[in-house]
């Protein structure tokens, strides 16, 4: 064995699972390097600048539900690729890629469980799945979640994150706007609350429909919330928009939402709202 091999073999290398890439997380906003363990224990929020990273349904459910215990609601069966859409790829191929990368059927997942002992049905929209775009499956999942909440006699809580309607489904995706609105009216007639948590980003047709129809509108700090993009608005009105336009704090200041709540305080705040808004007869059931 050469001296070089002896030296190389004598150097203590960390196992792959403990490599630098897995030990550190770089904040997208301030660039700080944070221990992954510290970052995860802080709800995927940077402890230096309070930047709220995007998270998927699994993490969200674990953070929200009591003891991270919940039951996933089955994804509704819908017709896929009804328009036989194709651009540089077939729509069916894009769906397969998104499902393989995210291990989810589509961009929205429902689960039932308890928050501080209160029964709830929670829906989480995942921006990582085709930009959280709203298609037939997302509309059907929201309707299914609302009807599950009515059957359980409990609130429906929805975490939104989307770039808007799904272009590959054309007018059928836009029809999910009135469809979800009608389902929310059923929830209202049942006397049950609908709470929306706007996360980064919530834009387009999602903002123009179910994202802004909550009995209570909450947003995470710094979340981008709007309909059209800032550049499009500036080009249309030919004016420079103010600093922080379309961010959660700006919307709170101008009365568009009810509160901005950090992720670490969100579970407690939701528990308080549910206890206030849910009828006692429903709680006892």
3D architecture notes:
With 285 residues, the protein is an alpha/beta fold. It folds into two domains: 24-53, no CATH class; 54-284, 2-enoyl-CoA Hydratase, Chain A, domain 1 (Alpha-Beta Complex), CATH 3.90.226. 39% of the residues lie in helices and 16% in strands. The chain is built from 13 helices and nine strands. It has helices at 3-10, 20-23, 36-41, 57-64, 91-102, 136-152, 170-174, 176-189, 204-207, 230-237, 248-253, 263-277, 280-284; strands at 24-26, 33-35, 70-72, 108-115, 118-125, 156-162, 194-202, 216-219, 259-260. Strands 3-4-5-6-7-8-9 form a seven-stranded mixed sheet, sandwiched between helices. The chain has a two-stranded antiparallel sheet with strand order 1-2. A hairpin with a 2-residue loop joins strand 4 and strand 5. The N and C termini lie far apart (75 Å). The mean pLDDT is 92.
Shape: globular
What is the H-and-E element order? HHEEHHEHEEHEHHEHEHHEHH
Number of domains: 2
Separation of the first and last Cα atoms? 75 Å
Largest sheet: 7 strands, mixed
Mean model confidence by pLDDT? 92
Structural class: alpha/beta
Protein topology:
Layout lengths: L2 H8 L9 H4 E3 L6 E3 H6 L15 H8 L5 E3 L18 H12 L5 E8 L2 E8 L10 H17 L3 E7 L7 H5 L1 H14 L4 E9 L1 H4 L8 E4 L10 H8 L10 H6 L5 E2 L2 H15 L2 H5 L1
Parallel strand pairs: 5-6, 6-7, 7-8, 8-9
Antiparallel strand pairs: 1-2, 3-4, 4-5
Helix pairs in contact: 6-8
């Amino acid at each position: 064995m050469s001296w070089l091999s002896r030296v190389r073999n004598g150097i203590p290398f960390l196992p792959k699972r403990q490599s630098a890439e897995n030990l550190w997380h770089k904040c997208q906003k301030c660039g700080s390097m944070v221990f992954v363990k510290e970052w995860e224990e802080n709800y995927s929020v940077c402890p230096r600048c309070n930047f709220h990273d995007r998270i998927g349904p699994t993490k969200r459910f674990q953070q929200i539900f009591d003891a991270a215990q919940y039951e996933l609601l089955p994804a509704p069966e819908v017709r896929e690729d009804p328009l036989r859409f194709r651009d540089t790829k077939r729509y069916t191929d894009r769906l397969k890629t998104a499902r393989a990368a995210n291990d989810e059927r589509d961009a929205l997942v429902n689960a039932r469980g308890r928050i501080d002992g209160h029964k709830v049905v929670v829906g989480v929209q995942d921006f990582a799945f085709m930009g959280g775009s709203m298609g037939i499956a997302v509309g059907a999942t929201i309707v299914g979640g609302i009807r599950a909440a009515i059957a359980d006699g409990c609130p429906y809580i929805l975490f939104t994150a989307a770039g808007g309607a799904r272009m590959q489904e054309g007018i059928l995706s836009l029809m999910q706007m009135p469809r979800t609105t009608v389902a929310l009216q059923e929830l209202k007639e049942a006397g049950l609350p609908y709470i929306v948590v706007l996360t980064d980003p919530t834009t387009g047709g999602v903002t123009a429909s179910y994202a802004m129809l909550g009995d209570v509108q909450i947003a995470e700090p710094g979340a981008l919330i709007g309909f059209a993009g800032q550049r499009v608005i500036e080009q249309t009105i030919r004016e420079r928009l103010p600093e922080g336009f379309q961010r959660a704090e700006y919307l709170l200041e101008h009365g568009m939402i009810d509160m901005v709540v950090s992720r670490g305080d969100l579970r407690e705040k939701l528990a308080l709202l549910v206890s206030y808004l849910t009828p006692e007869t429903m709680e006892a059931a």
